Fold this sequence. Notes:
This protein is of the alpha/beta class. It folds into three domains: 11-188, NAD(P)-binding Rossmann-like Domain (Rossmann fold); 195-280, N-(1-d-carboxylethyl)-l-norvaline Dehydrogenase, domain 2 (Orthogonal Bundle), CATH 1.10.1040.50; 311-411, no CATH class. It has 20 helices and 15 strands. The protein has an eight-stranded mixed β-sheet with strand order 3-2-1-4-5-6-7-8. The chain has a seven-stranded mixed β-sheet with strand order 10-9-11-12-13-14-15, sandwiched between helices. Helix 8 (199-210) runs antiparallel to helix 16, helix 10 (232-239) crosses helix 11 and helix 16 crosses helix 18. The longest helix is centred in the N-terminal third of the chain and has 18 residues, at 43-60. The relative contact order is 0.09.
Amino acid sequence: MTKDFLTDAPILVVGAGIMGLGIAQVAAQAGHQVMLYDSRAGAVGEACAKLGKTLDALVVKGKLSAQAVAQTLSRIQAIDSLAAAAPVQLVVEAIVEKIDVKRDLFLQLEAIVAADCVFASNTSSISITAIANGLAQPGRLVGMHFFNPVPLMKLVEVVSGLQTDPAVAHLIFDLAKMWGKTPVFARSTPGFIVNRIARPYYAEALALLQEQATTPAVLDACMRAAGFRMGPCELMDLIGLDTNFAVTQSVFAANFYDKRFVPSLLQREMVDGGLLGRKSGHGFYDYSRPVAKPATATPEPLPPPLAPQLLRVHGSGALADRFAAALVRSGSPIERSQSSDWLGLEVDAAQLRLTDGRPASQLGGEVAVFDLSLASAASGALAWAASVRASPAWCAAAPAWLQVLGFMPQCVADAPGLIVARTLAMLINEAADAVQQGVCSAEAADAAMKLGVNYPAGPFEWLAAWGSDTVIGVLDALDACYRGERYRVSPWLRQRAWQALT
């Protein structure tokens, strides 16, 4: 197969559902002749009619020309028998997520298409190695995992099984780029890149809810303030609690029940109760009446704190400088202690500290901790917690000082790592393990998480800004509090921290 083998290749897309139709549309818009097949009678006709309406709407909006729409639709041919697909050079499968059904399809196609026809599966979680088991030519099977909606989402995970021919993976990689996508290479392991690395985004929220540390509205508001388009609870409601739970169960089982991926009892209870999110009308939020988005947990403005005798900014860097500037603007005389080993404010005998993962109660009496504030988030909801030994006066003053600094303080239980810090630390940790295990490169992980799930930055970009020692400190604090395997630090992160010592 030459490098341009698939450039103008005729293509078969199997499965006329949302994903299959989207793949057929993208291929046809790129100039390919596309055969579309579905085992359900009438499914392809219904899908093509739906696509016609979608594209016509884009013409009305001025986003496509009528000529382009006509050309795209003319390139998609409905077929009612796989035998008609004998001339194709690429098959993209987008059928039900059942390994036996997928394998049987490719076994059937091996007897129809040419020996050099490339097989691609759009599976989101099933092992490519396992699907290829039993094929006469397992090397021609590769994963080509698109994200929904296919025409809009840029990411394509190009997934190689143990027997995938590297040349085939590169052909699909190059083809995805020709289709205007951003492909990333991945090794076939549970969850591939996105569905694996993203697990902590949901898992940490569910863990905090299960221990009644906060509410869905506060969780979502804090994560949106950190730059995420949707908080974990509203995102689970959109995906469907049942779908999200099923993926978590699949990754958990496929990793031989590694405690890092253990599903949530709270999520199982919600699924058992039919609280599935938007599609059932109720999940973490009530969708029985129209709402723009879940409540954003905006607290009432607090009275300004009393003028202290001592107000000192501890620590160095952009956040400490921002704190100092905000306090100067408020008219408060301040001192600086840039050599401190913690960041935050000292207010007379009390401390307001950026979380290092340890609960406030572990740090002292008159202590409150606040969550990680990303550089891109100038203000917004920010979680904080007070020591169980803090006085009522300090419990009232701490959020007032956060308000002076430009935040909307959200009181949560004194849980280690609060909300954003623990979530980002776990996302970084999971990405580090993926790189160490050869699932993907650091660059691929960053691209995948930004393009596949719209994260504001990639895990290794966060790591570069935050530092290995800081991330390890948060994870070690979580592990010390909860014990067990869930918060074990990736050896890749430990090695990175050791390298920094040389």
